[in-house]
Amino acid sequence: MSQEALEGAGCAVESDNPVLPFLRQDRLPHIWCPGCGIGTTVNCFARALQDSGMKLDDVAIVSGIGCTGRVAGYMNLDSFHTTHGRAIPFATGLKLANPKLKVVVYSGDGDLSAIGGNHFIHAARRNMDLMVVCVTNHTYGMTGGQTAPTTPQGATQTTMPYGNFENPFNLPFLADACGAVYVARWTVYHVRHLARAMKEGLAKKGFSFIEALAPCPTLYSRRNKLGDGVEQLKYYKAKSTIKNGADTKDVGLTFQGDIIVGKFVDRERPTWLDSMNGHLTKVFPGKFTPYGS
Amino acid sequence: MSDKPATAKVKGTVSVKPEVCKGCAYCIEFCPTKSLEFSQSFNRKGYHYPVLARPETCTGCDLCGVHCPDFAIFGRRLKPGEKA
Ligand code: SF4
Ligand code: SF4
Ligand code: SF4
């Protein structure tokens, strides 16, 4: 495509996209399918980083395995691509070894809530100072579309060919019940809200959880005859209601049903490190030096 | 205080990198002013990419840019006097 032809088509051909400094440009284009919503969440995350004004050296990103697990490898941050489900324990170690870092866990619903489900509930319970972004596409994309703990009842998957009959997780409710201090859900239709939530998560001390609903057109949508990525975003647009402060027990998802989005929880609790420092200072008066504060 | 007439409309333009576009149409579908359309031609991977079909209606809001999963487009405000 020549420059003249592009300009003739009404487009400038500059490449100074404001998100590029936040990405490892030598790794692009990324591997995600056309219309995969993961890329849109990354775009929002890059803008959150930009708006936060944080130095990229002060942020680290950790992913598990899966399509969303690739995110860590595309960000221009110190990043770790860990084993399946283990992003949170790895990030916990990283945070405790270097408490000044902002550590972000960025992974998929299957990785975080199935394989890593136990780590997830305990990190929230301890109020470990991590920001967890969960891209929920209701399936295991990388391995071929198996049923995930977030697959809505009635949706068809390779391992549920007659439709899923299991009760899915309501992840914001789970995070809230375990003690997360910040819980929000948006979709990749709500890009500005999602970017703002990520910016708030970056600034929040403690366990913050942001669920981003995103289409997997290749497996989830195709198997369920839901059309392409645009069709899923149109569904998000039509069926989403913004309810900030909604009771998280009411925000469960159903197959192509209504979606409640918003910031559900924003509260203060001592982090794990604060609790340890406070406790040991009391137990060993004058002898204990608080760590990392 | 701005001395521009109150009716002055915000004008914008987009930049597109056709070679990394995967033709998902998010930008085209969710542009609030419907300023974009698919190109007639294909990129090297065989995808149609967006072109600014109606430059006069683009406000530079960059919603196309935030939606793009492939970082292939972004919108920006035109500087005073700048032509799209
Ligand atoms: S398989 Fe699904 S989740 Fe994975 S890259 Fe493709 S569309 Fe995205
Ligand atoms: S900048 Fe805004 S108005 Fe212009 S093409 Fe993009 S979405 Fe449409
Ligand atoms: S949103 Fe991006 S990848 Fe999709 S059609 Fe537009 S420019 Fe291409």
What does this structure look like?
Chain A has 293 residues and is an alpha/beta fold. Chain A has a single domain, classed as Rossmann fold. Helix content of chain A is 35%, strand content 17%. Chain A contains 11 helices and 10 strands. Chain A has helices at 3-8, 38-52, 71-74, 87-97, 109-115, 117-126, 171-178, 191-203, 217-223, 229-239, 272-283, and strands at residues 59-63, 78-81, 102-108, 131-136, 139-140, 146-147, 182-187, 208-213, 240-242, 259-266. Chain A has an 8-stranded mixed β-sheet, with helices on both faces. In chain A, strands 5-6 form a two-stranded antiparallel sheet. In chain A, helix 2 packs across helix 8, helix 5 crosses helix 6 and helix 6 (117-126) crosses helix 7 (171-178). Residues 1-13 of chain A have low confidence and may be disordered. Chain B is an alpha+beta fold. Chain B has one domain: Alpha-Beta Plaits. Chain B has 2 helices and 4 strands; from the N terminus they run E-H-E-E-H-E. Chain B has helices at 26-30, 63-67; strands at 12-16, 36-42, 48-52, 73-77. Chain B has a two-stranded antiparallel ribbon. In chain B, strand 2 (36-42) and strand 3 (48-52) form a beta hairpin. Chain B is elongated. The complex binds iron/sulfur cluster (3 copies). One iron/sulfur cluster is lined by residues 32-33, 36, 38, 67, 137, 141-142, 216-219 of chain A.
